[in-house]
Amino acid sequence: MPLTGIIAEFNPFHLGHAVPIAAAREAMEGAGTVVCVMSGNCVQRGDLAIFSKVARAEAAVRCGADLVVELPLSYVLGSAERFAEGAVALLASMGEPETYLAFGCEKADGAGLAAAASALDTREVQERIRAGMRTGLSYGSACQAALNIEGEVAALLKTPNNLLGIEYLRAIHRLGANITPLPVAREGVAHDSGIPAGGYASASHLRSLLHSAGANIARPLSEVADPWTYMPAVAAEVFRRELTSGRGPASLEQIEAAVLSLLRLQEPPEGGYLDDSEGLSLRLAAIARKVGSFRELLEASKTKRYHLSRIRRLILVMCLGLTSAHRPKLPPYIRVLAAGERGRVLLRRLAKGASLPVLSRPGEGRRLGLVASELLAKESAATDLMALCFTGPARRGGGEWRTVPILVEGLDFP
User: What are residue 105's DSSP bridge partners?
Assistant: First the structure.
């Protein structure tokens, strides 16, 4: 039975996210399962997710996914290359003989994306990319400059979704994974657009609306703007429940006192922080001792050479004490966050045929050895950091160890 994977953050789940899920079901002609590999309580842009991973996973299952598994923290807080490799490795580990990877891109040009991925994999181009980034170019701009090409393939490198799609193709090639790419034309607005269009809004715009309204839902959110219009109704229901319960919205800026304290007081681990280079963590710690807010920290840290997303990821890495030991070459387990009817059928197959152990509860990871145990402890630290953004009982620590998968009954999508 076919399996189609989707790699996402659903931060939060919106109408545009339903497009690749629908395309996956159409490609499988109603059979098979849709498996989403999703970021947990931290996201790749270097922030806390706006809602918890279990809430976002539940929304995805209610909107068409069969199973949602978690991409471990250390891959989420890495470069696009590490993010893609970790997620593709999880899909490959499931061992399903007919596996696809659906991903949204600005233009569903499979041949063009494959050509760009092959070119980027050459040693000469990789050296040019590194040289370009040393001069202060972003990764995307360095790729374009390194390839020095014109026409449609060059245009593919100008958008973040296409760049991430190319990284998925490169990861499939590096891992020798038996996965067939399924590019899907992205519908709606641009990746970080602040203006809704055609009934769609970007996730960044929705986060802005939700943070503007805050956790106080006594007044209608429509007094600020209505983010629910741009979400499937069942997803909006899940997120409304989270707000009502004091679980969101979350961001690092909301807990800036805790972040600044950790950066000021945290001692660098032996061997250094994950993905730290050229003493950037020392610079961030020094700046944190002088500034009085998270925004000041970002403004003072931003340079042409170090882009904001990289700085934000390193801030989280420092707060959580992540080291290279927390990111093995491949993820050490498959962590289940939510499942529907077909997802539970797939889980029974994975229990027998997957190359990685399947975890339903984080405590089960303690039997998998030191690497898995320490990685799960860092997941717990991230969950506790997120809890400081909440109100009432939701602020309590230790929530990671109480987390169990959300099992959604009565859903079996055609």
Answer: 185
Give the number of domains in the chain.
3
Residue 93's nearest CA partner among 335, 307, 398 is 335
Q: Work out the burial of residue 202: count CB atoms within 10 Å of its CB; fewer than 13 is exposed, 13-18 middle, 19 or more buried.
A: buried
More confidently predicted of 413 and 358: 358
* Confidence (pLDDT) at 151: 54
The number of angstroms, rounded, from the C-alpha of 263 to the middle of its chain's C-alpha atoms is 23
pLDDT tens digits, residue range 42-98? 999 999 999 999 999 999 999 999 999 999 999 999 999 999 999 999 999 999 999
Question: What was the pLDDT predicted at 224?
Answer: 47
User: Following DSSP, what letter does each residue of 106-125 receive, concatenated?
Assistant: SS--HHHHHHHHHHHTSHHH
Q: 300 and 287 in contact (C-beta within 8 Å)?
A: yes
Looking at the DSSP bridge assignments, the partners of residue 406 are 338
Q: pLDDT tens-digit profile of 16-45?
A: 999 999 999 998 988 899 999 999 999 999
Residue 238: alpha-carbon gap to chain centroid:
19
Which residues constitute the domain of residue 154?
110-158
Mean pLDDT of the chain: 90
> Using CA atoms, how far apart are residues 316 and 233, in angstroms rounded to an integer?
32
In order of 12, 150, 354, 368, the CA distances from 332 in angstroms are 27, 41, 12, 8
* Same-domain pairing of 136 and 263: no
* 186 and 79 together in one domain: yes
Q: How far is the C-alpha of 350 from the C-alpha of 344, rounded, in Å?
A: 10
Instruction: DSSP letter for 209, please.
Output: H
Residues 45 and 120 in one domain: no
User: Strand, coil or helix: what is 85?
Assistant: helix
3-state secondary structure of 210: helix
For residue 382, being part of any structural domain is answered with: no
Determine the residue type at 294: F
| Strand-pair partners of 43 | 47
Same domain, 75 and 191: yes
Rama region for 71: left / alpha / beta (φ>0; ψ in -120 to 50; rest)? beta
CATH number assigned to the domain comprising residue 88? 3.40.50.620
Specify whether 343 is located in the same domain as 222: yes
* Helix H or strand E encompassing 298: helix 294-301
Q: Is residue 378 part of a domain?
A: no
pLDDT in tens, 313-370: 999 999 999 999 999 999 999 999 999 999 999 999 999 999 999 999 999 998 999 9
